[in-house]
Amino acid sequence: MFYRPQDGHGLPHNPFNALIVPRPIAWISTRNSEGIDNLAPYSFFSGTAYEPPQVMFASTGTKPDRDNTKDTVGNIRASQEFCVNLVDEASTDAMNTSSRGLPADASEFDHAKLTRANCETIACARVASAPASLECKLVHIQQSKGAANYVVIGEVTGIHLRDDCIVDGKFDSTRFIPLARMGYRDYALVREVFELARPDD
Hints:
Blueprint lengths: L15 H4 L3 E2 L1 E6 L5 E6 L2 E5 L4 E6 L11 H9 L1 E5 L6 H7 L9 H4 L4 E3 L6 E3 L4 E12 L6 E12 L4 E2 L2 E2 L7 E3 L5 E3 L12
Antiparallel strand pairs: 1-13, 2-3, 2-6, 4-5, 5-10, 6-9, 7-8, 9-10, 11-12, 13-14
């Protein structure tokens, strides 16, 4: 099968998201100018650089009470900072609950019954139970092709690691079972890993 996206795929569901898998989930916390803590999951997410450490995520939708974007991007525009919390198996339901479109003056932390913790380098809350949290200062927001598509890049200025996830000096993802996004409404849990050295290592 071959199709041009501009012409449509002819399938019952769009296959595009099912091709880029598995995708880690950035559970992004921000704070608005009124002090309300926002929390939302984004699965177009990755690291972009080691030195200085940087991450990116993409926002691809809108909310009726926001100017052509979502609360997360709007809050980052104003505050110039955000926190990326990793999602583990134990947080699956809370992550899904936090994806609900709430008014800008409501906090997903409260809605999902999540405990907050303070960040160290930014004025923002983080998910206390997250295996790791990356505190970020905004590098830039780039509008990509499409009316409401934005790519956000942040420099990581502080990292929280949950103590039980550090094993023999390494951050061990098998200790918390990462949750990943697949296509459609599908998710995956990473339970097994293997080591593979590069040929020139």
